[in-house]
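Key result, reporting period 2: structure in, sequence out.
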């Protein structure tokens, strides 16, 4: 199937209102792939389409071009009739497009073979898009698409769960000559993994996204190295809700590239943990990083657990062992200890943990074992009391923070995380020598800026994030993590975030 579209399985999507901008995008796309979809329905009018296709005809770019002019009925922008759509695609074919992609809403109204004749010499792909849900009868949809006489077919559907994404990605195993596209944020990882499971193409935007969950060509090519994925590529990922902020994919994909390890690390938006665990095997997942809100609940699905992680009652790292058995670890505690012990003597110190979730549990047990006096304060006092009992700590009421002093205060909540911002504690509540924020994006949170203004030493969550990530990599691979490369990549991304905010 791959030969149908040339050697590049990642297809860059070119979409703009003017011919001039389409040409610019096409040239940018050609730097990364030789397979490009031209969204002719995005062009503002017939004059812009004519100008763009005239340029294509004159220049004949060295690429496999797929012409598309999707009507509104099929989820596109073109407001014209079916006959007008076919006429535009025929023009694209004559201008040098090797393929034309026609939505089933148009193709289904034509007799078998009529579309192929109308669009010659281009080959025809017929596509089905469902922007609301994943249809139950995918096999029936594929049969209907193939009945049009198309050389290739495409199924793209909105996914509400990871198991639905698996159903879309599994289509190439059962049907030949097919492009499978899970859409939506839940389907993001599946857009990459569909290639591993046999999809002929995966789509990525050159400049602007044209479908829910569509990745950029930069991310698809450089971050996930999707064009190199094969059935042998090992799959790792981070699960959470939300997940878009996570730099774990950058951290670990950088490590895999540095070590020339055939693996990919992907973000999975997981709202239903049971659904995800049931889908892991189909995607070939070998290991997981676990973040909010699943660090405690993941334990119900594990076959075994590291004794320290079991004692902590939270898991942030999972390994898939023989027979699909899930084994849990906690590396968060490593990050907490490494971050604090460089600045202070832990034994006998008084440390306040704000929050009582999975990250706070790791910190509480680690600090208690190091000899610190652990104090807990949380928005839900009952959780703080339960954690204090388990870790041998103390509960401090929120109202008392203004009058208490600590050697260190650690924010263990997601408050302050990109893109929402905010701070969990006020300036008057920061009475300490050191403030540490487990949030690492942004690099300098509002909480840390408040601490610095008060002359308090501030520790970014980046240090904890890196330390726990290094430990995860070593658990998964049995090799030492390429720490310098991993640190450099994440720090560059965080600095780029800050630079973009200042613009």
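The corresponding designed sequence is given below.
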């Amino acid at each position: 199937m791959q030969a149908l579209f040339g050697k590049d399985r990642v297809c860059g999507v070119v979409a703009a209102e003017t011919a001039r901008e389409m040409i610019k995008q096409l040239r940018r796309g050609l730097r990364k792939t030789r397979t490009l979809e031209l969204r002719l329905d995005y062009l503002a009018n017939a004059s812009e389409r004519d100008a763009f296709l005239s340029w294509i005809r004159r220049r004949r770019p060295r690429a496999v071009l797929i012409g598309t002019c999707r009507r509104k009925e099929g989820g596109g922008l073109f407001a014209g009739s079916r006959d007008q759509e076919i006429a535009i695609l025929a023009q694209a074919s004559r201008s040098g497009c090797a393929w034309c992609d026609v939505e089933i809403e148009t193709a289904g109204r034509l007799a078998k073979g009529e579309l192929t004749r109308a669009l010659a010499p281009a080959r025809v792909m017929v596509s089905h898009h469902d922007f609301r849900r994943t249809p139950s009868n995918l096999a029936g949809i594929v049969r209907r698409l193939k009945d049009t006489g198309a050389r290739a077919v495409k199924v793209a559907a909105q996914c509400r769960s990871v198991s639905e994404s698996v159903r879309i990605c599994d289509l190439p195993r059962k049907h030949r000559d097919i492009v499978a596209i899970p859409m939506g944020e839940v389907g993001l990882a599946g857009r990459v993994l569909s290639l591993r499971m046999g999809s002929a193409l995966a789509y990525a935007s050159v400049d602007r996204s044209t479908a829910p969950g569509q990745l950029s060509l930069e991310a698809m090519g450089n971050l996930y190295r999707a064009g190199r994925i094969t059935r042998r590529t090992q799959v790792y990922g981070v699960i959470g809700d939300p997940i878009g902020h996570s730099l774990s994919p950058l951290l670990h994909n950088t490590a895999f590239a540095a070590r020339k390890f055939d693996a990919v690390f992907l973000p999975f938006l997981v709202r239903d943990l049971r659904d995800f665990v049931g889908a892991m095997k189909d995607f070939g997942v070998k290991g997981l990083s676990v973040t909010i809100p699943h660090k405690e609940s993941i334990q119900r699905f594990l076959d075994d657990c590291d004794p320290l992680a079991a004692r902590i009652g939270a898991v942030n790292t999972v390994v898939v062992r023989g027979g699909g058995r899930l084994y849990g670890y906690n590396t968060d505690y490593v990050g907490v200890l490494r971050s604090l012990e460089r600045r202070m003597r832990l034994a006998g110190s008084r440390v306040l943990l704000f929050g009582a979730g999975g990250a706070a549990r790791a910190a509480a047990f680690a600090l208690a074992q190091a000899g610190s006096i652990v104090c807990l304060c949380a928005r839900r006092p009952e959780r703080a009391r339960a954690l204090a009992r388990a870790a041998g700590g103390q509960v401090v009421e929120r109202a008392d923070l203004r009058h208490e002093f600590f050697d260190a205060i650690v924010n263990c909540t997601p408050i302050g995380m990109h893109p929402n911002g905010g701070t969990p504690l006020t300036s008057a509540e920061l009475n300490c020598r050191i403030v540490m924020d487990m949030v690492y994006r942004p690099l300098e949170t509002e909480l840390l800026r408040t601490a610095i203004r008060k002359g308090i030493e501030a520790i970014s969550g980046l240090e904890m994030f890196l330390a726990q990530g290094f430990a995860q990599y070593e658990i998964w691979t049995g090799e030492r993590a390429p720490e310098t490369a991993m640190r450099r990549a994440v720090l560059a991304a965080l600095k780029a975030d800050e630079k973009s905010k200042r613009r």
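The chain has 19 helices and 21 strands. The chain has a mean pLDDT of 96. This case is discussed further under Risks and Mitigation.
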